[in-house]
């Protein structure tokens, strides 16, 4: 796989967000952590586990329609074995989202039983929704509340400030801003976050990133690349120059427009046009 230059990311507001989540945690009964099915482990902020501690947790493997189905099923088994409640969903299409409320009530069955024994009725279950930017947190809130109460955009870090969303008389969600960690010790994690768009393109070399992604896809999902870019079965690993020429992306003098080709490769991966692809396995 092609080398990608060192990626670092120092968003100033993330420290404030971490403090806010720590303060709000005492208000909730459980935590719903949304991850990207294509990179479940790389899209989990280790800081979130430190903050939430022993709170009951449900992990939502979101964007399942973009990920390799078999690999996502492996991740669900993996997280279940670790003691989490894990569910597979796609918040844009709505697939699997209806299972959230029954899953939460199952996760908190002990708490519900204690409340019942004490004669406490009508008290809502409260769940904090956490996740790094661009995993589909706002899409999930909008889909499950059916009210479009949070703004959804295709760029990282759009949700500002925590807000409550009532689903019914029995369940309330606390939406929090997406939180990335301030320093990447593992560059492979940073690169995978770059592939999916969780890190803004303007802090990276997109040509290096797209070339590296092409390398991974050629090794693991060769058929998808051949089909998408109409390549010959016997072709060698394509590079951005080849993609640019195939697409007629040329600049003055007939030279291939490498940057445009890089943007196309990244966009087509992120939007699922390259097929269902997973970037890591448990």
Question: Can you give a write-up of this model?
Answer:
It is a single chain. With 282 residues, the chain is an alpha/beta fold. It has helices at residues 13-24, 46-52, 69-81, 100-107, 109-117, 137-145, 187-196, 206-220, 222-228, 240-247, 258-270; strands at 30-36, 57-62, 85-88, 125-130, 163-168, 171-175, 250-251, 255-256. The strands form two sheets. It has a six-stranded mixed beta sheet with strand order 3-2-1-4-6-5, sandwiched between helices. Strands 7-8 form a two-stranded antiparallel ribbon. Strand 7 (250-251) and strand 8 (255-256) form a beta hairpin. The protein is elongated, with a radius of gyration of 21 Å.
Give a brief description:
This protein is of the alpha/beta class and 282 residues long.
Keywords:
Conserved Hypothetical Protein Ylqf, Chain: A, domain 2, 2 domains, 8 strands, 13% strand, alpha/beta
Helix and strand layout, with pairings?
Layout: H1 13-24, E1 30-36, H2 46-52, E2 57-62, H3 69-81, E3 85-88, H4 100-107, H5 109-117, E4 125-130, H6 137-145, E5 163-168, E6 171-175, H7 187-196, H8 206-220, H9 222-228, H10 240-247, E7 250-251, E8 255-256, H11 258-270
Parallel strand pairs: 1-2, 1-4, 2-3, 4-6
Antiparallel strand pairs: 5-6, 7-8
Helix pairs in contact: 8-9, 8-11, 10-11
Q: State the CATH class of the largest domain.
A: Alpha Beta
Overall outline: elongated
> What order do the strands of the largest sheet run in, or round the barrel if closed?
3-2-1-4-6-5
Structural class label: alpha/beta
CATH fold call of the largest domain = Rossmann fold
